[in-house]
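Exercise 7b. Backbone tokens:
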């Protein structure tokens, strides 16, 4: 996407494919309402380092970072917040006065705050589908808030790696996509592209949902993924049985 005319501060979201992203809609509206921001665009890039080199002008102030660049964002930053270091990934970089980038991790707090608003029980087990940057950020925050975490991925070694990286933070384990019982889970966070318009599917379609378990799907498009529809149907059935 072409950038607007030069402005004192320009922002955006960068990933290998960002056509699905609703970040420009959200952030431009927030800037309009609150003020203090600048134009925010979506930028697809094949190479993250080359992207940063091509956006070295001071007017480019900050970028949300999405798949597959969250680990690279952390590696490219001159400084990082503790959450980025602990999670091994960042989802936002901000330009500093010396021209370097600082890395930040907000995936986790956003996910857990949303689940709390939906009725997340204290101390329950949180199942996280996926093992990438967003999954690790959510896992870190869940552990910090006293939850046990289970990473589930189609490649069990990826889930094991995510769990190992957060082992010092609390009770965390990694399993494959068939090694769990949803009855034992107190919340579900889906952090993979599966279920999006570009990658149709539902990783849990063969599983039965427990009553009252909050589900968060990080997929942008469609708004009602197969996973969320399944969760809603399961909840409606449970309520009908009461």
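Sequence design result:
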């Amino acid at each position: 996407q072409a950038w607007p005319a030069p402005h004192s501060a320009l922002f955006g979201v960068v990933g290998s494919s960002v056509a699905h992203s609703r970040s420009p809609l959200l952030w431009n509206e927030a800037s309009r309402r609150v003020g203090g921001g600048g134009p925010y665009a979506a930028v697809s890039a094949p190479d993250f380092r080359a992207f940063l080199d091509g956006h070295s002008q001071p007017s480019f102030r900050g970028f949300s970072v999405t798949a597959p660049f969250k680990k690279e964002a952390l590696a490219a930053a001159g400084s990082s917040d503790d959450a980025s270091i602990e999670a091994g990934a960042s989802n936002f970089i901000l330009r500093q006065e010396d021209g370097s980038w600082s890395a930040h991790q907000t995936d986790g707090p956003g996910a857990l705050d949303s689940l709390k608003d939906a009725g997340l029980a204290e101390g329950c087990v949180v199942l996280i589908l996926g093992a990438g940057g967003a999954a690790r950020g959510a896992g870190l925050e869940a552990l910090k808030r006293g939850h046990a975490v289970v990473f589930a991925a189609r490649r069990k070694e990826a889930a094991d790696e995510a769990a190992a990286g957060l082992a010092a933070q609390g009770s965390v384990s990694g399993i494959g996509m068939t090694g769990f019982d949803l009855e034992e889970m107190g919340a579900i966070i889906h952090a993979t592209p599966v279920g999006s318009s570009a990658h149709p599917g539902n990783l849990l379609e063969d599983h039965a949902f427990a009553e009252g378990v909050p589900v968060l799907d990080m997929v942008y498009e469609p708004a009602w993924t197969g996973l969320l529809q399944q969760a809603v149907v399961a909840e409606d059935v449970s309520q009908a049985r009461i």
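Instructor comment: The first strand starts at residue 10 and ends at 15. The longest helix spans residues 226-241.
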